[in-house]
Design goal:
Helix content: 25-40%
Strand content: 15-25%
Structural class: alpha+beta
Number of strands: 18
Strand order of the largest sheet: 1-2-6-3-7-17
Number of helices: 11
Distance between the termini: 33 Å
């Protein structure tokens, strides 16, 4: 494997949108506002109808409220085989919110400016799925020597929730794919490992008092800040004096506090404070050990809190778990196929989470390879270069050598 910085330095060439098979499909999928908090059913129904029209068999799995669904679709091989030795093209349909971001264009209207296509989901990660769908007529025309599956999931951005039901349904139906290509933005480089991610909420209940009588209160904000400070100190230790893996773009485990809420007025000792934090961990770092150490530090505050008010507490809620992924099998056929389909056989590791580990745990070997760059994801004015769309289309054409008769 080579150094991960190569992920950010793809050669660029002038590409016209008229040269791209999947350009209009990208624009179509971006036009569905599938923010994780909202329904994705309009996009799913569009993709299902499109695939049905090309002879695919399709199945949906819904969330508990029926507002969101996964789609698993199969184009059978020419001999009728629809269950074994197929390749899965996988992507999530949900995108992160745009609230409060200073967009220069409508985020749900894909807008071309020069060689960049702007819109929420262009990079993360509707372009891969759109290009796969756009090539369906060509896959069908050439005939399939093995099944080709499409997996479109919901709620990846909030903890890889939907794909768990999709995979369970696939396993229950006896479908046994040979492997899966997950089209997260890698600059069309092959990624064989990603960090795991855990998220928690901490809730501190203090005791209100007039700010002139602070010893009679328990300041929930200050206690929460002590815990946030511990997380920041641990982050520095992991950066400066802990084991690294230089093949990752960020080569060490990273704790991070993203949200904090508390207090009502500056002259009131605050009763409540909460904060949400995450740990993006390397495979050899144990997230439970990190949490246990934080929990022990939090417990050290409780006796003094109870001395003022026995109803005070510090509580933690586990919010999400995204397992780490490491395809360490150098002989895995999926890695060989991915290397053959890219214009670079180099392999990388990344710090962001994906659904790869969940497929891998279900004995569906996975690699991550898709157009765009993670630096553009989740940002205002998210964009993808037309050169990246062209490289993804070249990938699909090479994939035909592995799945098509002709």
């Amino acid at each position: 494997m080579n150094a991960p910085h190569a992920l950010r330095h793809a050669d660029r060439a002038t590409v016209s949108p008229h040269e791209l098979v999947g350009y209009e499909m990208v624009r179509k999928l971006v036009g569905f506002p599938t923010v994780s908090r909202d329904s994705n059913l309009a996009l799913i129904e569009f993709a299902r109808d499109y695939l049905d029209g090309h002879g695919a068999t399709t199945a949906l799995t819904f969330d508990d409220e029926g507002r969101k669904a996964n789609l698993f679709a199969t184009l059978a091989a020419h001999d009728g085989n629809a269950t074994s030795n197929g390749i899965v093209l996988s992507g999530h349909t949900d995108v992160v919110p745009v609230d409060g971001q200073p967009w220069d264009t409508d985020p749900f209207v894909a807008t071309l400016d020069g060689d960049r296509l702007y819109g929420r989901g262009t990079a993360d990660m509707k372009s891969f799925s759109a290009i796969g769908l756009a090539f369906v007529p060509e896959f069908v025309r050439r005939g399939l020597s093995r099944p080709l599956h499409f997996a479109l999931s919901y709620d990846e951005e909030v903890g890889c929730i939907g794909v768990r039901r999709l995979i369970a349904d696939v396993m229950e139906k006896g479908v046994q794919p040979a492997g899966c290509i997950i089209g997260e933005p890698t600059g069309m480089q092959i990624v064989v490992a990603n960090k795991g991610r855990r998220t928690w909420r901490c809730r501190v209940r203090g005791h209100e008092a007039h700010s002139s009588l602070t010893p009679q209160g328990v300041n929930a904000v200050q206690i929460a800040c002590e815990l946030v400070g511990w997380i920041a100190k641990r982050a520095r230790e992991l950066r400066d004096s802990h084991r690294h893996d230089p093949l990752y773009d960020v080569p060490f485990t990273t704790p991070h506090v993203g949200v904090i809420r508390g207090g009502t007025a500056v002259n009131i000792v605050p009763r409540d404070c909460s904060f949400e934090f995450e740990l993006r961990h390397l495979p050899f770092d144990d997230p439970q050990q990190f949490f246990a150490e934080l929990r022990a530090y939090a417990d050290s505050f409780v006796p003094a809190m109870h001395a003022v008010d026995p109803a005070t507490y510090i509580a933690f809620d586990a919010l999400s778990e995204m397992p780490g992924f490491d395809n360490d099998n150098g002989d895995d056929p999926m890695r060989a196929i991915a290397r053959d389909c890219t214009d670079s056989g180099l392999e990388h590791k990344v710090s962001y989470g994906t659904e790869a580990a969940l497929f891998h745990r279900a004995s569906i070997p996975a690699v991550i390879c898709g157009p765009g760059h993670i630096e553009q994801a989740h940002q205002p004015n998210e964009w993808i270069g037309l050169d990246q769309l062209a490289r993804c289309e070249a990938f699909m054409r090479r994939l035909m050598r592995h799945v098509c008769v002709a």
